[in-house]
What we know:
Shape: globular
CATH superfamily of one domain: Periplasmic binding protein-like II
Mean pLDDT: 87
CATH topology of one domain: D-Maltodextrin-Binding Protein, domain 2
Number of helices: 17
Largest sheet: 11 strands, mixed
Structural class: alpha/beta
Helix content: 25-40%
Order of helices and strands: HHHHHEHEHEHEEEEHEHHEHEHEEHHEHH
Strand content: 15-25%
Radius of gyration: 23 Å
Amino acid sequence: MAYFKAEDSLFEITEKHPQTIKVFVEQGFEQLADEQKRATLGKALRLNIALAMRNIDEAAFAELLNQAIEGTNGNNAAVDSSKKINIKGLLPCPVRLPLQEALDEFIENNTEDIHIKAQLKAASMGLDWIKDEILSAEKIDRLDDIYISAGFDMFFEDSYFGRFIKSGEYADPLPWKQINSDFDHDSLRLKDPKSRYGIIAVVPAVFLVNTQIIGDRPMPQSWEDLLDPVFANSISLPVSDFDLFNAILLTLSQRYGTEAITALGKNMQQSLHPAQMLKSDRSKNQKPAITIMPYFFTKMAKSGGVMQAVWPKDGAIISPIFAIGKANRFSQMEKLADFLGSMKLAEILSHQGLFPSLNPDIDNKVPKENAYMWLGWDYIDTHNLDQEFKNCDKLFNDAHNLKTVKS
């Protein structure tokens, strides 16, 4: 600890060595990304105590801080800053490990050309660990080079990445000039015409129907069918899966109007995680007739059982897996961008995770008659998505709570 002592406060260390702020934030001390919290909480907390509270090895953490201060890599060899690339974000839980392994292999094979630091967590971790640093960043030099995540929650709002997208400082880093034909035809244009946002793959939402519980009611074939009062108190939704839930509400509102949100709120029975939905037929309590879930989880349903998957005829609502990168670093990030758009990653996403890829050469193995429902770039460009979601969320919860009170 040549540059600091274990008894130094977090504020003292970060004030003397600002380059350590990112290390603290990345290791779970997100509050230090906020200058005010850094000055208050940081002054009250000493390094050794902070690490002990989080059960973090003191020597290993000190080495990370030393590396940041010295501007060195893991081997203490000086690294040209133009060759340093930091990538951060969330990966879909079902494919996080094989994607991480593929990335680790790529990094290991490219250590002479570029020096990549990757922090990619499971989507179930949520975005809060990233949001604080984005909110507090006045310039992009405080941010990483590439960010990846599903959903609309982080990339469009001005207080987050929206301001840097509008200024052109972040843009689509992917190498594709054209995308997979599954997503590039008259009724669906998924590639951003302004090249601001890259999309690696999509998370489609479909139905899983309990054929015993649905009884003599008609089998739902579309999202519009789900809005019928005949399905009151019969549907489970992935409310806690914010990326997908946001996409569902926004897309239904855009396609069928706000009345659709109210109807869906009335018809919801309960919120379940997809893993719970798969076992809902064995529940001793309420059993939903219909569950809405990512396509991946329907393949885990027991073959020949009472649960039947339905791909909506009006299209599986999609939550895109977005990627953005610093526009002024595209030349340095070319190899990494090529890797993110590679067939190897496309196969992991599409074939292992059932997250159809936009790679132009991949066969997503989704029947051509299976359509997708997409919010659309025109809608995105003319609406404040954060406000639209808040409006939809209120309508949904008001309708669901009113139904609960009446029952």
